[in-house]
């Protein structure tokens, strides 16, 4: 198609609550509001700062051979980078795959993505007889001027199967420019911000995720100034209902796992521990045989486990690091056997490793989640492996490694919850920049890792403080599922006078109860039966209070 750009340049483009990503095409007639919808009326162009008249044209290199996207699109490029926010929506086909491909193509077209919102499954508006939408937003930088960016996004939409259809109707992909640098734009092709942006909860929820409660730069300050409220975007969201809308009003925050959407806020999920090591602090050596391991998994599933976390490398204090080969020899036979168990239908498998080679092999053999106690700090290739795999990533807080984590220098905190939140957020940001979207991240504050007794107690009892501290820099990351893993750990034995790990189950129940009531979404435990019961009681209490988790 032909489109007139800003300067008149001609531009040519040739038991989990799980739900399926894929939705069948509906039988409907008439798109959700597109924030860069074409308007028949003319607007005076209001763009500041101006796009440089000396912008150059360049030819984009061919996309991958597997993509149907136009390989030789000519677009105008400015010499200055601008920070942008782009909203995504989809309700036809494999919605998550549509998002993945859209992100890949955006990167190919010169949009460098820096932040991702949470994922939201939302009810359709106006035309309700159609599948539910998946909504998100991304933040990035680009040298494409605004109208050229619009051209690129429209090209991506078309190549993903978007056609002119019913207004407010179904579509495989919807890409909308919410903000472009410090510009306010009104032209016959593009309006930023759209006049109805502030009315749309399915857009404001992911938009807010891309921000922090603290304003991080002048561009973000400008975005807040465009809101219709003195309190900026945050106040606009709160006036619609804010967090009270999530779980209500047709909006559900979800996390993608495989081809499903995981509703992680509805109840506490139980992760059962399966150690295949000879030297784990609690049950080392008990489940090294395949028969014993499978039997233990079957037992944990019957007791209420939602996730089985399999580890073949001990992370107890002073544990020796084994080779990748030895870790895989312990892990893969059990993983393959567990994956094939009929009892695992509807359950998830997590792999506890900080080794990227092991992670890659395990994911290829069917692991659903990668649980990394170092959050990538002990293997520089881990984030790349997880980014390419598409699996959710559990990032845990730890200083040093298992041999050094309890050294005196690693036990110094000014405020343990604030420090843990800040350090863990840094690791999550590294993961995000490496290509792991925030909507695939789960966090673990690392109880028992680089912490004294009092530090562990503070973390368990003040999870809201960790979320609040993270929210200063990223509201989206602050909403990530939080896992706590105090099970049978030494600090419980120190408090209760129980030197043997197996005697700390009652103390574990007490600690996970406090954590769940404080907002933990997942508990990682050895004794599944008793802790699953505790989780059910806690969830019932939270429902009575009318509180959601995350």
UniProtKB/TrEMBL annotation:
Residue span, Pterin-binding domain: 268-536
PROSITE patterns listed in its UniProt record: DHPS_1, DHPS_2, HPPK, PTERIN_BINDING
One Pfam family cited in the UniProt record for this chain: HPPK
NCBIfam families found in the cross-reference section: DHPS, folK
UniProt protein name: Pterin-binding domain-containing protein
Cofactor(s) the protein needs: Mg(2+)
Pathway: Cofactor biosynthesis; tetrahydrofolate biosynthesis; 7,8-dihydrofolate from 2-amino-4-hydroxy-6-hydroxymethyl-7,8-dihydropteridine diphosphate and 4-aminobenzoate: step 1/2; Cofactor biosynthesis; tetrahydrofolate biosynthesis; 2-amino-4-hydroxy-6-hydroxymethyl-7,8-dihydropteridine diphosphate from 7,8-dihydroneopterin triphosphate: step 4/4
Catalytic activity as recorded in UniProt: 6-hydroxymethyl-7,8-dihydropterin + ATP = (7,8-dihydropterin-6-yl)methyl diphosphate + AMP + H(+); (7,8-dihydropterin-6-yl)methyl diphosphate + 4-aminobenzoate = 7,8-dihydropteroate + diphosphate
Matching SUPFAM superfamilies: 6-hydroxymethyl-7,8-dihydropterin pyrophosphokinase, HPPK (SSF55083), Dihydropteroate synthetase-like (SSF51717)
Keywords attached to this entry: ATP-binding, Folate biosynthesis, Kinase, Magnesium, Metal-binding, Multifunctional enzyme, Nucleotide-binding, Transferase
Family: In the C-terminal section; belongs to the DHPS family.
């Amino acid at each position: 198609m032909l489109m007139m750009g800003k300067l008149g340049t001609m531009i040519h483009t040739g038991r989990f609550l799980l739900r399926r990503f894929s939705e069948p095409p509906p039988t409907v007639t008439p798109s959700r509001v597109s924030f860069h919808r074409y308007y028949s009326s003319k607007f005076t162009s209001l763009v500041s700062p101006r796009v440089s008249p000396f912008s150059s044209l360049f030819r984009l290199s061919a996309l991958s051979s597997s993509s149907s996207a136009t390989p030789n699109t000519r677009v105008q490029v400015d010499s200055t980078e601008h920070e942008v926010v782009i909203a995504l929506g989809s309700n036809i086909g494999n919605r998550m795959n549509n998002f993945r491909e859209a992100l890949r193509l955006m990167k190919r077209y010169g949009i460098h993505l820096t932040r991702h919102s949470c994922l939201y499954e939302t009810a359709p508006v106006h035309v309700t007889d159609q599948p539910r939408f998946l909504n998100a937003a991304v933040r990035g930088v680009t040298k494409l001027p605004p109208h050229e960016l619009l051209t690129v996004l429209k090209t991506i939409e078309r190549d993903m199967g978007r056609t002119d259809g019913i207004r407010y109707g179904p579509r495989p992909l919807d890409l909308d420019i919410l903000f472009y640098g410090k510009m306010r734009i009104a032209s016959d092709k593009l309006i930023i911000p759209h006049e109805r942006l502030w009315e749309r909860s399915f857009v404001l929820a992911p938009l807010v995720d891309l921000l922090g409660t603290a304003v991080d730069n002048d561009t973000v300050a400008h975005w807040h100034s465009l809101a219709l409220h003195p309190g900026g975007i945050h106040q606009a969201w709160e006036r619609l209902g804010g967090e009270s809308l999530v779980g209500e009003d047709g909006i559900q925050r979800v996390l993608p796992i495989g081809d499903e959407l995981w509703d992680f806020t509805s109840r506490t999920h139980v992760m059962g521990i399966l150690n295949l090591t000879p030297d784990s602090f609690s049950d080392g050596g008990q489940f090294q045989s395949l028969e014993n391991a499978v039997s233990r998994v079957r037992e944990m599933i019957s007791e209420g486990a939602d996730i089985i976390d399999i580890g073949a490398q001990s992370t107890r204090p002073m544990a020796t690091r084994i080779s990748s080969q030895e870790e895989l020899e312990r892990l893969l036979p059990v993983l393959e056997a567990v994956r094939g168990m009929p009892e695992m239908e509807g359950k998830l498998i997590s792999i506890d490793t900080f080794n990227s080679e092991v992670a890659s092999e395990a994911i290829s053999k069917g692991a659903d989640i990668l649980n990394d106690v170092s959050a990538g700090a002990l293997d520089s290739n881990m984030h790349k492996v997880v980014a390419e795999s598409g699996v959710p990533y559990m990032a845990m807080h730890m200083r040093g490694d298992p041999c050094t984590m309890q050294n005196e220098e690693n036990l110094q905190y000014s405020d343990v919850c604030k420090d843990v939140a800040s350090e863990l957020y840094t690791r999550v940001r590294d993961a995000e920049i490496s290509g792991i979207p925030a909507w695939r991240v789960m966090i673990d504050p690392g109880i028992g890792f680089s912490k004294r007794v009092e530090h562990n107690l503070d973390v368990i009892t003040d999870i809201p403080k960790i979320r609040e501290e993270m929210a200063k820099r990223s509201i989206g990351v602050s909403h990530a599922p939080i896992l706590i893993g105090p099970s049978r750990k030494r600090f419980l034995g120190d408090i209760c006078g129980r030197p043997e790990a197996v005697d700390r189950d009652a103390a574990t129940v007490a600690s996970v109860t406090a954590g769940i009531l404080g907002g933990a979404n997942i508990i990682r435990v050895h004794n599944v039966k008793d802790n699953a019961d505790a989780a059910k009681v806690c969830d019932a209490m939270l429902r009575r209070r009318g509180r959601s988790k995350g």
